[in-house]
Amino acid sequence: MAAQGRSPSTRVKAERRNALLADYRPLAGAFDEFMATDGSIRPHWEPFLTEWSALSHDELGQRFGLADRHVRDTGVSYRVHGDLDERDPLAGERAWPLNHVPLILTGAEWQTIAAGVAQRAQLLASVLDDVYGPGESIAKGLLPAAVVAGSPDYLRPLHGTANGGSLQLYAADLGRGPDGRWWVLGDRTQAPSGAGYALENRLALTRAFPDLFRTMNIERLAAFFQGFRAGLVASSRRIEPRICLLTPGPLNESYFEQAYLARYLGFLLVEGGDLLMRDGRVHVRTIAGLKRADVIWRRIDGDFADPLELNAASALGVAGLVHAVRRGNVHIANGLGSGAVEARALMSFLPVLARQLLGEELILPNVATWWCGQPRERDIVLDRLDEMTIAPAFRASGEGLDSGTVLAGELPPDQRDALRARIEARGQDYVGQEVVRLSTMPVFQNGRLQPRPVTLRVFAAATPEGWRVMPGGFCRISDHPDARAVTMRSGVRSSDVWVTSDAPVEPVTLLPSADRITIRRVIGVLPSRAADNLFWLGRYLERTEATLRAVRALLGRLIDADDATPGRADTLRRLANLLVAWGSAPGGKGQKPSAQALAALHDANQYGSALASVREARRTASVIRERLSVDAWRLFGDLQRQLTLDTRQMRSEGEAYEIADTALKTLAAFSGLSQENMVRGAGWRFLDIGRRIERGIATCRFARHFAESDAPSDSLDVLLDLTDSQITYRSRYLLGAALQPVLDLVMLDPYNPRSVAFQIERLDAEIATLPALSEDGMLEAPRRLALKLAAECRTAEAGRLDKTSILLFEQLLMGVSSAVADRYFLQNDEPEGSRLTGIA
């Protein structure tokens, strides 16, 4: 199938096929997923290669562009550990490195992989039940005690706790050896990542090759997530539990995935500070007080989950969480101590444990592993040191030789000798493993397919019907042709995994059947942290708009050649001074207004510039990404790109004016989205409250700068421009701009959506709908201040407005902002909501 026009001829297809395969040579000694040893293409890859051969180079580029745009528009990103900037959570984000070629596996082969992964998940779940329970495997000598007790991920306070080491989501890292067999390279039981990225890889490549995806009968992923969610629901004591995804926060390497999965599965995304212990139960701090959390899917390390009983240095967890687990009042997935079975030291004992605990042989073998805590195994490793990879037996710790897997044979002599000495002194801290040569798969590079090593991460979820394995997964592809497994620790590409079926695959949805749906019109509680960020998102966006309007007004008057307008010089001075006062532009003698306007647009070092405000808005939005649509996130990216200055170019006044105008249109698009697409729940209300407060404050400041008693008509015209009220004013008054009518329109007119009066009325209405914590009939501080502000505004007269009275409105608006923050946002460890007696 060609993307455009007629299907190419057989000759053209053959030429394109030959061009794609011109440089493809399987690596020596490695299994190739795509090409057999005789140079023929494996049959299950033929439909894919045929499709590509029907597309020209330009058509392939268009398909790749569709996938890449999906990644860019949805903000799919990741971080490299250590590449962090606490001041800007987005600064270290990297675009997701999507490979446009999927890994394709047959359904028959996948059945073996799925059976092996499900078996391994059950085995590790049984081991966890034993080591946190009766400890029979240790008592019978099947497992050395040091393999368990020596792991920093074995949490002794959880011993004897039913939920201590429970396993809900498991991931196995697989590699295919030269003989074609799949081997387990590692187990992920602590907080497995990658399932959300696997889903995004699927969406991106499906967008690029939708027809191919259907004709090849690729297995869907939704049923896996449906089963995982059902398993979490079944683990709770309540019929409709509140399920939270506990994230380390926006600086975490996979925060995008966590926010994405929370939105996709309908879970509440929370950080440790959002949770609080009361009466042996875990609660979420919300704008309506404390609400019970029934299930917590954690994405933080187990020992960081409770600073009271586990790691006292942790700022990510919840004090007292272990106590709630002991009492059975909250289910943690995965259990806090589940990381103990990730240890490489355990791998050499799993074949025996499988026979004893399951009565079965392992379907998927481990990579050969020797734990150096045993004398015989340590001697084997030391004798064959140059042939092995050496890795920490437990969680990687320290630096240099103790920071991860190393190829001993490639170390300099002094480092190899140091490693040998460490193994001899503390063998229990190390394992030796066979060097595995990974299989290879195609990547598209320089117009051709080329082989690169690949590992595959496969996920299994505990469901009410047993273990369900995701039909696909998350594959990582090395950028280097070295096919040894050790090189994959920093793989730089990822792709989708397609499992083919012989029959058409039925679509699967996460929606439950109609007879099981409980109708509701609200989407649940709003955490205080989310309300805080939505509120400030609204303020930053309005702050950006106010700056852009001031810049546009200044540039418009600089461009206008009519310098004879009365008061023009004074107006330019006032506009420039306003930008300086807002921290948008540099002040001081000799500053040209045009340069100040340019700085107010593009200079991120000016804290009040439009670019700085947009970055703050995008940073704030990143913390609540699960609550924003793809379209909204795309607009943030568009705004930042529009305002980012290429330092190699200097903008003319006309170009800068166009940039400000375009950015204002983008902001208007976001306003349209929020007004027309967002459900009028508590989240939207806090976004709107933030916008109303900031717009009201900005309008007051505009009025104080440009509507003094002796202000020239040009300054009043600027005020009308800044408040987008020119058309309304001209339709009401035939005369030019006059002080009292202008002030009435921008300050006191409740029918003008840009006036201070309009913002105050909307504020009062929104605050009136927010939940009250007390039931004593008394007005809470935010509503009380909003009513006072509304009364001041309704009784004011334009003829009596001056700088002092306008400043009073501004201060009252800031007072409402502080009252909203004090009442609804996280301020300290004892929120007002904790005083409630009726905790839900």
From TrEMBL:
Source organism of the structure: Bosea caraganae
Gene3D superfamilies cross-referenced by the UniProt entry: 3.30.1490.270, 3.40.50.11290
InterPro entries associated with the record: ATP-dep_Glu-Cys_Ligase-2, CP_ATPgrasp_2, DUF403
Matching Pfam families: Alpha-E, CP_ATPgrasp_2
Protein name per its UniProtKB record: DUF403 domain-containing protein
Limits of the Circularly permuted ATP-grasp type domain: 102-477
Residue ranges annotated for the DUF403 domain, each copy included: 526-825
